[in-house]
Structure formats: structure tokens, C-alpha cells
Amino acid sequence: MLSVAIVGGLHADARRAAVDRLLAEVPGSVALHHDLATAVRGTVVRTIRDRTGIVSAGEAPLVNDCACCALREDLVPELERLAEDGLTRLAVVELWDSVEPKAMAEVVASAGLRLTGVITAVDPALVLPYLGNGDDLADAGLAAAATDQRTVADTFARQLEYAPVLALATSEDADDEDRALLAQLHPTARQVPIGDGDLPGRGDRDRESWFERRPAEGPELTGPTGLASADSAPGRSPLAEAAFGGFDVEAAAAAQHPACALLPAEADECGVSTLVWHRRRPFHPERLYAALEDLCCAAARSRGRFWLADRPDTLLHWDAAGGALCVENAGPWLASLPDAAWELVPPVRRAAAALDWHPEHGDCCQHLVFTSPGLDRDGLELLLESCLLTDAEYAAGRTAWKQLPPAFDSLLEV
Fold it and tell me: Does the structure show a pLDDT above 50 at 219?
């Protein structure tokens, strides 16, 4: 049965190296790649290659003037054709630079195909430069559509945080700070090396010596159900194992949803810190709005959920990278819903709320996480505390809170 693994990431050299490694290690594997750079000419170029080179190439027309739409329309039929042929064991979907894995993973899974891995390839030395790059994708020649308003930083952050596996390129420029930053940004990710065979001057000789160092037997590889994978094999590299390890689309989506996201924990290592700031009192909208620039620039990456006094029933999503902030309405807090509506809420959301339930405010809270080298933890905490309601404002109650100036209307497009 055909397995499908997605490999993405803005670090193009690392991504290509990871795909090449998989093609070299997994017999019967091919890589599909849609080059969206040609979209300005009205088409998307598709190539299929194996370890020896290009097997076939073709073009897909733009759909709704959107290169990503064309990718979605063309990808599934190609994967279905490979599955029907029965000659391909692993189809590696190599995403174009700015394409995010979440959308493609959901497309593949909804088609009934067997998605067994989602991997983001990373050069550790480039993590901080990309997180700090607030340029629009369009200005960098990486926009996936004419209406694409994403930045390099926020796109890279989502690519990094969605994938449960990070394929790490060997980089002489990476240091302990780079590695600590990567670990704190996505502490639950499995990090696997792309392999020394990808370095100049090495190759099969090092690959063979690597396999010789592997034990003849090892633990069984298990997928998301806990069952041993039929594709696990002793001696296979961690990267190849990850391509067959299994992937749960619904669990991955829940892990990114602001109401129940698996946010990083407190950490401080090699000059990199993560501050977890959790409070029960709502923000004053005007004071928080006035502090946004300082808060966004205080850390390379910050995210989480927050609570505004003038919108006490609304869960708001905080997502900042590259000095820019995206604020989104993520729906109601569970505390604001009638009991009958709870049955319509996914179990993972109810479980997350129950773990953090407050007798007065329910799940309403501030839960923000800031990660950066050289983080001024004390200064950041003082600034955040100054944005909360004062004792007198808090004591006035919800009716008074709702009368506060709605400073966030412009950000929330009200």
C-alpha cells in the first residue's frame, strides 16, 4: 500500500537534502514537487523523480488564480495514480518553499490516502534569521497567490511548529544557542538528522558506515495507534523511520488550536529563554494595544491565547514573529457557552479547559509564551502586568468592562 510523507520548509537546501536522503534509502520511493514559482506564467510545474532523476514532468493550470489551489487539484490525482499502479512504496511530497504542511496534510488525508509522515526540514543556523524576517512573502518572491499576505517569519513559524518531526541539516554555522532556540520553539518535536551523506565529499561510504554502526535489531516503530508499523525496519535511519511513523491530522490540528495548543514550557538554556505567562485577570484593551509594539519586539516568537476585558466571552489568538502580530478571534471561551453546547465541542478542547478551569472564570485566562535569545524576562513580565485591569477596574465587573474603549476592533476587522 502506498505511503505518503510530506516534507516541507522554507530552508530549501535542507528540504531537498532530506528528500534526496529518503529517495536514496527507501526502495520504490518517488518525490513529487510542484514548483509554484512558475505561477506568474499561469501554470504550476510538476515533477516526479526517483533516486536516479526525473521520471516525469507536467504542468497544471492555475485554479482561481491561486498556485496552492492548483497544487491541491493536481496532487491528489497524481498520488491516486501512484497508488493504483502499485509500484511505488513511498511518495514523498516535497512542498514548495512557502507552502504550509497543515493544508497539504489535510488534503492528502481527506482523499483517503495513507499519510504516514509530516516532516519540516531545518537548517538550525537559519532559525533565528527566518524568525526575525518580517518581509512579506510577495517581496521575497515566495507568495503562493496574488492575495498572499503572509510574512517569511510567520510562515516559517507555522511550518516549524506543525510538523511532529524536524529533519536537521548538518550546519557548521549552527551553535548551541541555535540548537537551544530550536528545541524551545518546538520541544515536543522529534529531531532527526538528515545524515552525513549529504555533506560535500561524503556519500555512500559514510552511509554504509552509518548502517554498520546500527544494531542488527531495535525497538519496533509504532504509529499513532501504538501498533507496530509494517514499514519499520532494523537499520533504517531515523529520517526514513519518521517518514513511515504515522500521522494524525486531527491531533495535529488540535495541537495548533489556540484553545488547546501544546505550547512550550518554561526554559532557560545557552542564552535562550522561554517565558510562560499565565494570569486570570483580563487585559485592559487600550493599555495592551499601546504596548503591542514592545511586546512583539520583545521575543523572536510569541504565541498563545488571551482575554480582553471589553470582549470577555471571546477567546483571542496571539501569534507573533518577525516583529509582527496577528490577532484572531478563535471563538467563545467554553465558560461563555450554555451546558448544552458543550457536546458540540471536540473532546480535546473540553479536556484542555477542564485542566485549566477556574471556579470564577472557567477557562478564560491569559496564556502567552515568549521565546528568544537574550529575553528580558523581568521587563517583559512587568510590561504584561501593567496591561491587566487594575484592582478597581476588575472590581467594577463585566458590565463595566464591556464599556471600555474597543481598541482592538481594527486588528479584528470589526
Answer: no
- Which triple of cell numbers denotes residue 47? 515533477
Cell numbers found for residue 9? 520548509
d(CA 268, CA 52): 45
Nearest residue to 121 via CA among 195, 180, 55, 48: 195
* Residue of 63, 97, 98 whose CA lies nearest to 77: 63
Angle at CA of residue 296, ends 293 and 299, nearest 5°: 140
Q: Give residue-wise pLDDT tens across range 117-141.
A: 999 999 999 999 999 999 999 999 9
Q: What is the pTM of this model?
A: 0.88
Round to whole Å and give the CA distance between 385 and 177: 29
Counting Cβ atoms within 10 Å, is residue 349 exposed (0-12), middle (13-18) or buried (19+)? middle
Taking the C-alpha atoms of residue 178 and residue 128, their distance in angstroms, rounded to an integer, is 7
**Contact, 88 vs 78, CB < 8 A?**
no
Long-range (24+ apart) CB contacts under 8 A made by 78-85 are 78/32, 78/46, 78/48, 79/2, 79/4, 79/32, 79/108, 79/111, 79/113, 80/111, 80/113, 82/2, 82/30, 83/1, 83/2, 83/113
pLDDT tens for 302-353 read 999 999 999 999 999 999 999 999 999 999 999 999 988 888 888 999 998 9
CA distance 250 to 260: 13
- Lowest-confidence segment of 43-47, 109-113, 205-209, 267-271 by average pLDDT: 205-209
Compute the distance between CA of residue 207 and CA of residue 335 in angstroms, rounded to an integer: 55
Whole-number mean pLDDT of the chain? Answer: 88
Alpha-carbon distance of 65 to 381, in angstroms, equals 45
